[in-house]
Specification:
alpha+beta, 4-stranded mixed sheet, 3-stranded antiparallel sheet, 17 helices, 11 strands, 2 domains
């Protein structure tokens, strides 16, 4: 499994894969759900999968094609069509209802393959990204990199899986599993945002590019690395970072010397206000890197992961604590980001806080800005589909 299908696999929370495909006697499964509820989930997943019973599985893959059908429950965790599979030659490019061959003649090292379960192998995230980048723009590649280098994934489960995950959340049984934790709003509803350790680092991506024996996708991923930054915790942070950090020639605001989720240790007094010893700032400019000489933090607010009065109170406490640490705090909402005029005002305000002189954009820069915004402000769930 490769390409878009592989990226979808790596977006899927390990808990969802456990529920879909682990042995029924798995200790955690037995703790989470009853055998009857588990069998119901798996039957519903198999029936809603594009690889439902009766799918034509005669492919160039032979037995492997049938194995894909047999793994339909696992693949249905986040899956919408024929499985993207590696095709080493043009003769192997014979699509079916089961498989969508992706031509990739470059040898795939064994260390770039991982067992997905039920006889299926999946390429690792960096190679999957490179394959998608062949068809994607550098900006879309940067957005995907922002997620893979960040501490989040956006997961839209099929209805049967979504219902069970919500049941677990309602019962306070939605456990942190393999480092993945689901985001919920103040009403206890799943937001679709999952936090987890980064799947990639800039170093691992660069190493893969250096070892490539062909140039397919390499230039796009390199260009994406120039735009994306590690450690973002949400789509909004990635989008804001690219729009604010990219140089003006390419359509950005050229305010780029920042980092995502900078760790700030609070003083005892500030910690009392925040009711925590440390804070993480969504976008952070070090005092030594800006003309104003004062650190600046941009805090991103979105209904998907900052929702309701409880979060508002926590964010207000954090903002006060950071200001006690001589950090200027600026709030950015999703509504401000997507409205070009409001974002322009925000950018000028932020530039003033940083001590950066604002300059009127040229016609060419305005056109580049419109193009960049068009590419950045997209439906995040559909990013892998190119």
């Amino acid at each position: 499994m490769c390409d878009t299908s592989a990226l979808l696999f790596w977006r899927t929370p390990p808990l969802a894969r456990l529920l879909a495909a682990a042995p029924e006697d798995d200790p955690l499964l037995r703790h989470l759900v009853s055998p009857h509820r588990l069998r119901q989930l798996r039957a519903d997943l198999a029936n809603c999968s594009p690889l439902a019973p009766g799918a034509r599985c005669v492919t160039h893959l032979g037995k492997a094609g049938r194995e894909l059908v047999d793994a339909r429950g696992l693949l249905a965790t986040d899956f919408r069509g024929p499985v993207d599979v590696l095709a080493p030659s043009r003769e192997d490019r014979r699509p079916s209802e089961v498989a969508r061959p992706r031509l990739w003649s470059e040898p795939v090292p064994p260390d770039q393959l991982c067992p997905a379960g039920q006889g299926v192998l999946v390429v690792l995230p960096a190679l999957a990204l490179r394959q998608v980048a062949v068809r994607a723009t550098p900006v879309r590649t940067a957005l995907l990199l922002g997620e893979l280098l960040g501490s989040f994934s956006v997961y839209r489960p099929p209805a049967p899986m979504g219902e069970l995950l919500q049941e677990l959340a309602d019962a306070s049984a939605l456990v942190r599993y393999q480092g993945w934790q689901a985001g919920v709003d103040n009403g206890g509803r799943l937001t679709g945002l999952w936090s987890h350790p980064p799947l990639l680092t800039p170093g691992t991506v660069s190493d893969l590019l250096e070892g490539a024996t062909s140039r397919r996708g390499v230039s796009k991923v390199r260009a994406g690395l120039e735009l994306a930054r590690p450690n973002a915790a949400s789509p909004l942070e990635v989008q804001a970072g690219i729009l604010l950090g990219t140089n003006s020639r390419r359509g950005g605001e050229d305010l780029g010397r920042f980092s995502h989720n900078r760790h700030v240790t609070l003083s005892p007094q500030a910690a009392r206000i925040a009711r925590q010893a440390t804070c993480f700032c969504d976008l952070f400019w070090e005092a030594t890197d800006v003309p104003s000489g004062r650190a600046v933090a941009v805090e991103c607010q979105s209904i998907a992961h900052h929702f309701g009065t409880q979060s508002s109170v926590r964010d207000a406490d954090r903002a006060t604590a950071l200001q006690m640490m001589d950090v200027e705090v600026v709030q950015l909402t999703y509504a401000q980001l997507v409205d070009a005029r409001r974002f322009s005002v925000f950018s000028q305000f932020l530039a003033d806080k940083l001590g950066v002189a604002s300059q009127e954009k040229t016609g060419r820069e305005l056109r580049a800005q419109a193009k960049l915004r068009f590419e950045v402000l997209v439906d995040w769930e559909d990013l892998p589909f190119v």
